[in-house]
UniProtKB/TrEMBL annotation:
UniProt entry tagged with the keyword Coiled coil: yes
GO cellular component, one term: extracellular region
Domain of life: Eukaryota
Coiled coil stretches, renumbered: 46-115
Claim: Signal is one of the keywords in the record: yes
Lineage start: Eukaryota, Metazoa, Chordata, Craniata, Vertebrata
Protein name listed in UniProt: C1q domain-containing protein
Residues covered by the C1q domain: 109-193
Subcellular location, principal: secreted
Signal peptide positions on this chain: 1-23
Subcellular localization: Secreted
Length: 193
């Protein structure tokens, strides 16, 4: 439609004179409709249109190539992002595993450290005993209990790991009162109850 309007205007320009009256314009309009267009003018217009069309095709091809390149780049970035997400998940899982392992090692290290220091009375001095039967003395004052091997409620120390343990008691008595202390039982695994 635009081409027809363009040709009509071109024909009008070729054949219309600006100095004519309105009656002359009507006669010219009738002549224009009956006249054949100027071949050299039409060819020039067609050449311009062909050049313009060729330019449009080149631009369109360039934009299509640019769109394909951008789509390929976007797809590549998406794949890379997915790979990074997967690596991140793997690293988080590995980190969690290492954290669990570190926690276990900390626990084992804490369990391997055993030491306790206790006193028979909570505070001050006093006498305990005499007793007619064997009893387990419960030391009321717990100064140190690394490894929680000494149970302050039962008075029993249980060795949590294999190793060598050194115990020191200070016992004294007055006059003819017998005093004594002993470890009830040693086991093969070096635990004591």
């Amino acid at each position: 439609m635009e081409i027809m309007v363009f040709f009509s205007l071109l024909l009008l320009v070729c054949s219309v004179s600006t100095n004519k009256s309105e009656a002359d314009n009507e006669i010219l309009d009738q002549q224009i409709s009956n006249q054949q267009p100027c071949p050299q003018d039409i060819h020039a217009v067609l050449r311009e249109m062909a050049v313009s069309l060729a330019e449009q095709k080149v631009r369109m091809a360039f934009l299509e190539k640019e769109n394909r390149d951008q789509a390929a780049k976007l797809e590549s970035q998406k794949i890379e992002t997915d790979q990074l997400k997967l690596q991140s998940k793997e690293q988080v899982a590995k980190l969690e595993s290492q954290k669990t392992e570190i926690d276990q090692l900390k626990h084992e290290l804490q369990v391997q450290q055993v030491a306790f220091s206790v006193g028979l009375l909570d505070q001050g001095g006093g006498v305990t005993g005499p007793f007619d039967t064997e009893i387990t003395l419960i030391f009321k004052r717990v100064v140190t209990n690394i490894g929680n091997a000494y149970n302050k409620h039962t008075g029993i120390f249980t060795a949590p790991v294999r190793g060598v343990y050194h115990f020191v008691w200070t016992i004294f008595g007055y006059g003819d009162i017998a005093a004594g202390a002993y470890v009830q039982e040693w086991r093969e695994d070096f635990s004591c109850i």
